[in-house]
Write a structure and sequence with these properties.
Layout (H helix, E strand, L loop, with lengths): L11 E4 L2 E4 L12 E6 L2 E6 L5 H7 L21
Antiparallel strand pairs: 1-2, 3-4
Keywords: DNA-binding
Protein name: Twitching motility protein PilT
Family: Belongs to the VapB family.
């Protein structure tokens, strides 16, 4: 993503009870969700960073739990 220092004028409008802004195509954010926060008089909008499940699981420490043994029961017959 490239940073731009050029100011862009956009129109604010109402969408129901919410105020909204149209984001120009060249400034669109990736994904379906964003995070918004206020810093003084500025609103900062950032895309939500998604983490692949494999990376998320790799960050977790293994569980050190003892699990009870489960008896193997014979499978019940199924009519197909």
């Amino acid at each position: 993503m490239t940073k731009t220092t050029e100011n862009r004028h956009v129109r604010l409008f109402r969408n129901g009870r919410n105020q909204a802004i149209r984001i120009p195509r060249d400034l669109e954010l990736p994904g379906e969700e964003a995070v918004i926060r206020r810093e003084g008089a500025r609103l900062i909008i950032e895309p939500v960073k998604t983490v692949p499940l494999r990376e998320l699981l790799a960050q977790w420490a293994p569980l050190d739990e003892s699990w009870p043994e489960i008896e193997s029961l014979p499978a019940e017959p199924v009519d197909l």
